[in-house]
Amino acid sequence: MNDHNPSRANRSARRRFAYAGVGAVVLFVAGTLVANYKLLPYLTGSPAETSQAEKNKQIAQQARQKLGEERQAWQNDPKADPPRPPTGPEGYFQPPQEHEIPDDEFGQAIRRGREIFFNTGTNAREFAGNELACANCHLDGGRKENSAPMWAAINNYPAYRGKNKMINTMEDRINGCFTYSMNAQSSPSGGPPPPGHQVYKDLQSYFYWLGDGAPLNEDMPGRGYPTMQKTDQGYDWQRGEEVFVNNCAVCHGLDGQGQKDINGRYIFPPLWGPHSYNWGAGMHRVNTAAGFIKANMPLGKPFSLSDQQAWDVAAYINSFPRPADPRQTDEGISLEESREKYHQHMGYYNHSLHGVTLGEGATPERWERFVESWRAAGMSAMNQP
Amino acid sequence: MRSFMTRGRFALLTTVIMAGAGLVLSPGQAQEKASGARSDAKSLEKPLAAVYYGQAAAQADTQSVEGLIGQGSGDTWACASCHGDRGQGAENVPRLAGLPAGYITKQLHDYANRRRLNDNMQYVVEGLTDDQMAALGRYYAEMESPSSARPGLSGDLDRGRELALQGDWSLDVPACYSCHGSSGWGVGQAFPALAGQHPSYTYNQLASWKSGRRANSPINLMHNVAMALSEHDMRSVADYLASLPAAPGGRQAGLDTPAPGQLPPVERAASSQQGSADHE
């Protein structure tokens, strides 16, 4: 630049400017490509990770595959180790995936069972006496751990049950679900499916398939609902009301009667009243409901409530009228006799709450009267000054 | 010399700007800005607010807001100028037709009190009265218009369908339909229709819930769902939902919710302890 020549400098500057322009275009194109094809992670050496969902799916698939291999090995050599239960990402039993349902007559039975499980009121209409479905209390179609999964139940029956003091087959157990949780006394047929009915066969086909590879007569992790430790304060339905309003009512309604979508289908099930489970169902026990709620509610927020909140809100839900325990009405015994005989557990059976005696069946007329007086009282203790 | 250096700097600057523009302006990127993000994903949300607003909307006079919708008012532009004359929305502007009245009204209130952030919406709700918000909610809830949304995010429709119908319980994600209805047409006042919504909008909302920028869903239900979803999942489910027919209008205007007086006062519900939010 010592031999200063304006025209050369000018040319040189123009050239540089042109280079810079070309460079800009190149960089622009490169930037566009990087952004459009999401190349940045590769350039910076941190490729996009496999999502947790994909990892979980891989673990599940590998576990099921390993089961098949171990079975084959055992077939080939009786001295080989017997197959071990396949486990998923969190260590719980891994049931087969939907695409593994066999494409044959058995597969058809599995699918029918699955449809009954999800849409009980439609596919087992004759025997459903309320607006619930199996899948309301057994989440993810009976697959979810700590939500009374069917894979943990199917290989544990026949089993002796204190509830009826005898050995129960799986069919007996399902019969109990229809009788109490599905309130079959109010169903079109007036009762649960008769012995040997196709509904049992189909449901058991579905359960049998879900339990493929699960051990026999083992108390598997994730079975039933978690057992709740008692708290110092005990449970209290009045404390539970606030928990309910703040955590449950947005879905189940302040009146606990659930919500339908515009197709007329219940999306959030009724928790009490004439369209819910009856006084013989396991869920009316405060401890059972508390375990279910703790592990599964609000939906998508498992284990988010404190133990105390779960106990209290379980008490609140079970402090309202619901259909009668059919054992009490069938045997023609009093509520007091029924309490002595069948209700030696945590709950409000035969207590007087909200101005009614609990355990008396919530027939439509009685329920209407109750709702009227409940509304007149402001529906909620929280409404009172 | 001096002028030469300036040109050189200018060229360098141009280069940088254009390269930057290449990154920023490239099509297909619909990220909501993270700036202004609030850290109140755990802030308390009145869980029944939409139900109350639904009751107010059921009483509202929709004729009173027809001017706002069609012509706007003063410096404020008309609703229809962005959301369309059939409430159908476009791209990142949501479809409003057929959403629950209580839900829409609540969103307007949330924009006003900055529970939900969007510069345009904050500007237009500034002068609105409670009655006008309720009337707007009812107006759009009763409106019926076919879906104008189409999948456009290159999502995996099978994965989207799986999330919508079954969820992914390995991630503690329930099915969309387990709260938003068996056709994705919404439930009650608090759970809006998702079917027929524009995919960029749905995607952006999920991303906002995930980042904490949007934090106004009842008991933080959406925050928990979005946190568990991958980018791929969000695009997939947004695309799948966009492929469905839209909810019919008119049935969710809040007319079927219990009459006022049957619910405890909202302030009491709001001030009481919110267990779930505290135990995440």
UniProtKB/TrEMBL annotation, chain A:
Recorded GO MF terms: electron transfer activity; heme binding; metal ion binding
Biased composition regions of type Basic and acidic residues, renumbered to the chain: 66-82
Domain of life: Bacteria
Transmembrane regions: 17-37
Residue stretches making up the Cytochrome c domain: 108-214, 235-321
The keyword Iron-sulfur is assigned to this record: no
Keyword list, A-Z: Heme, Iron, Membrane, Metal-binding, Transmembrane, Transmembrane helix
PROSITE patterns linked to this entry: CYTC
Stretches for region Disordered: 49-102
Protein name: Cytochrome c
Automatic annotation (TrEMBL), chain B:
SUPFAM superfamilies: Cytochrome c
Feature: compositional bias, Polar residues: 270-280
Location of region: Disordered: 248-280
Repeat among keywords: no
Positions in coiled-coil regions: none
Secretion signal span: 1-30
Keyword terms, alphabetized: Heme, Iron, Metal-binding, Signal
Residue ranges annotated for the Cytochrome c domain, each copy included: 60-144, 155-245
UniProt-recorded Gene Ontology molecular function terms: electron transfer activity; heme binding; metal ion binding
InterPro entries according to UniProt: Cyt_c-like_dom (IPR009056), Cyt_c-like_dom_sf (IPR036909), Cytochrome_c_Oxidase_Subunit (IPR050597)
The protein, known as: Cytochrome c553
